[in-house]
Amino acid sequence: MGVVKVGEVYRCALCGNVVKVEEVGGGTLVCCGQDMDLEEGG
User: Fold this and answer.
1) Which of 26, 28, 32, 39 has its CA 20 to 30 A from that of 6?
2) pLDDT in tens, 1-42
3) What is the domain partition of the chain in residue ranges?
4) CB 6 within 8 A of CB 24
5) Contact 29, 2 (CB under 8 A)
6) Inter-CA distances, 34 with 13, 29, 31, 38, Å
7) Strand partners, 12
8) Closest by alpha carbon to 40, among 1, 9, 6?
9) Terminal C-alpha separation, the chain
10) Class of domain 9-38
11) 16 Cβ contact partners less than 8 Å away, ≥ 6 residues apart
């Protein structure tokens, strides 16, 4: 699943990096070679 809306928060399950979406451009967020996980409530 790709980025859908501004304000979503994604976390890397391996290193813990966190990304908050400021502008939707499509695609998926990747860190440490794998898709990042959408945080609940994001």
Assistant:
1) 32
2) 689 999 999 999 999 999 999 999 989 999 999 999 999 865
3) 9-38
4) yes
5) no
6) 9, 8, 6, 13
7) none
8) 9
9) 14
10) mainly beta
11) none
Write down the pLDDT at residue 31: 98
Three-class secondary structure assignment of the chain: CCCCCCCCEEECCCCCCEEECCCCCCCCCEECCEECEECCCC
8 A C-beta contact, residue 12 and residue 32: yes
Res 41: pLDDT: 63
Q: Residue 26 corresponds to which tokens in the numbers above? A: 């499509």
Cβ pair 38, 9 in contact under 8 A: yes
